[in-house]
Write a structure and sequence with these properties.
GO terms for molecular function: protein-disulfide reductase activity. This is Thiol-disulfide oxidoreductase DCC. It holds the Pfam family DCC1-like. It is a single chain. The chain is of the alpha+beta class. The chain has one domain. 48% of the residues lie in helices and 11% in strands. The protein has six helices and four strands; from the N terminus they run βαβααββααα. It has a four-stranded mixed sheet, covered by helices on one side. The longest helix has 17 residues.
Amino acid sequence: MQKPTFVYDGDCSFCTSCAQFIERRIPSHATVVPWQFADLDRLGLTLEQVEEAVQWVGPDGTVASGPDAIALLLRDAGRFWEVPGRALQFKPVGLLAWPAYRWVAGHRHLLPGGTAACSLPQAQR
């Protein structure tokens, strides 16, 4: 694998809106792809991982989830994006980031761009 890959839930409109923002505004080298169209085996990811949180797979095979994945995406973008990326990796911020991420993930159907499908488990979509 040459480039990092950022994997998100393409069935969720909120997640897709966030991914589109990333592609338009954050100059990461990563391929941004919905897990439904990703080769999970090649990336070394499981269905459980991608259903639980966004994933970052580095060129070296390093895998990070949730806010840790977002931090690596931001750091990869460089320039001023590296600052919030490093902040997310700062231990006290990271301890708060996971509960915040889980809250957003659990309420994404209520957020801008979210739809009722965002609240359903994958098996029911």
